[in-house]
Amino acid sequence: MKLRTSVVFLLLVTVVAPIVLYTDRLGSFTTPSSSNEFIEDVSSFTLGGDVRPLNLLPQEPSTTLKEPLGVVYLENSSISLSDSDASTRENSRKIRQLTQDSMENQTTLPSTRGDTGEHPHEEESTIRQVTERGLDINQGDITLEKPGVTSLNESREPQNDGNRREEIKIENQSAKTSIKAGTGEPVKKRNEKQNDRTVMADARVRHLKDQLIQGRVYLSLTGTRNNPHFIRELRLRMKEVQRALGDATKDSDLPKNSYDKLKAMELTLAKGKQIQDDCAAVVKKLRAIIHSTEEQLRAHKKQTLFLTHLTAKTLPKGLHCLPLRLTTEYFSLNSSEREFPNQEKLEDSRLFHYALFTDNILAAAVVVNSTVSQAKDPSAHVFHLVTDRINYAAMRMWFLSNPPGNATIQVQNIEEFTWLNSSYSPVLKQLSSPAMIDYYFKTRRAESDSNMKYRNPKYLSVMNHLRFYMPEIFPKLNKVLFLDDDIVVRKDLTGLWSIDLKGNVIGVVETCGESFHRFDRYLNFSNPLISKAFDPHACGWAFGMNIFDLEEWKRQNITEVYHSWQNLNHDRQLWKLGTLPPGLITFWNSTYSLDRSWHVLGLGYDPNVSQKDIERAAVIHYNGNLKPWLEIAIPKYRSYWAKFIDYDHLYLRECNINP
After folding, report:
1. Helices in 221-257 by DSSP H: which ranges?
2. What are the tens digits of pLDDT across the range 306-360?
3. In angstroms, rounded to a whole number, what is the distance separating the alpha carbons of residues 33 and 40?
4. 589: left (phi over 0), alpha (psi -120 to 50) or beta
């Protein structure tokens, strides 16, 4: 019995005593701060004021339990690191270490902090060391500077003295802690505002035009046509939109009430969508509208082409009046007053001679005036003008009443060239044939002829072919500069006479910078006569400003070459009519390439000629249909030509010729 009692007693001592002992110790546990309801690091807790590990859990190195900072980079942002990658990773690791330690310190008791005598907010000091000294917030972008982490990498900083900044752009994902800086607007809102600013300036104009197209669709659909009330309302809205739109091309041209009209139209279109919700029918109608619009565009382009060529062939009323007025004045002069001075210079080969073949008085005046205005010594320049019988008196009268300074003028009548007849010139015989005249003047061919520009009656003019008879016209001259009547001279041209043509007949500016200005564009290479004699990829060039060596011309018998090819082309199978194709053939292997700055082309058809090229040019050429004396001229190029015309001249005012 005593033995049993002893055993029971020992059992009670060994079992109950530990329970009582540990129950007493558990009473001294300290609860975490109310601000930290949950223990953030389960691997340790505070016991009796000491931080002890929880031995029931396996211990791991503290670095493996650190969570990375919630860093999210903005879209289209960049991270610029001034140090090497290794240094950047080390700095980032130390910053996370500090942040994690500060988070752990938040789990300690207030009494513990009080015992150490620290400030109640001392737990934030480490974070402030990083954020307040190292983070510059500027419009949503946070820049992390090295001075903010001086205590972490003082030993590394001197080695990277030249690279002082790390820029890390971050965006906080938490809605409660979203960063607002600068203007105080979130990044998303600022991006939206930036997108709004990039909206096209004519967005409302485009919207109104789209509404009109939608209205046309609903007017033609069966479902909406059966609703007369909706149709009336839609027509009314379309008229309002058309009046508001007018001729506006950008939003600033629209009236103030345009927005109200747009909204009203939107409501009406929404009704139409409710009435007619068959998408297939709408798509079908839109395709029909597109097809119809394309057909109209093709028709308008064809009509525009025809009218442009018709305008180019038509003489403006003022230019028709001017020669009549001048002719009347010329025949009122006595014979002595009809002569030009300095006629002894006409055959002096030491001077600078120009050849100009034209029936356009104003155009000739611009060529002469612009050339003389740029000449260093105008008295050394001689202009040889050849015109037709109708304009001969008017041309002489203009230059008699408007002499070009000290320069010498000669005006000749093409009728005086008795040697130029159909028995000598094959082209004269061809131009006078009924078939040729029919080709040029039968308007019924206008719609079917794809090469309308070759149907200009100017090609019937013999003056257009005088350039192939230079030695016959100027038998005592060595060099002549040929100029078209649609050019303007912007620099002194005397340097052309000093250029050595190296045994060639003509100096030209090549135009093959663009692939289509080659021989195959002008000549019919399907004909064996052409394909055997010429290279289809040979570089083309332009008439308009060409220096001729007449001595070399005579030696190579260029005129006879021209006649032989004209005889072969009697049926126009080798090339269309004009002067450039026979020029390419006649002067084949006899051309000298000049610098492009001597002759800039395209001002009569191309609105995109480089301004730099124009400024550098010695001669600018209005080749094409948009001549500067016509109303269809390209406006920005017209001033180069008009500056050499005195529009206050009595004859110009009487003929109502204005700039």
Report:
1. 222-225, 228-245
2. 787 777 777 789 999 999 999 999 999 998 899 999 999 999 999 999 999 999 9
3. 12
4. left
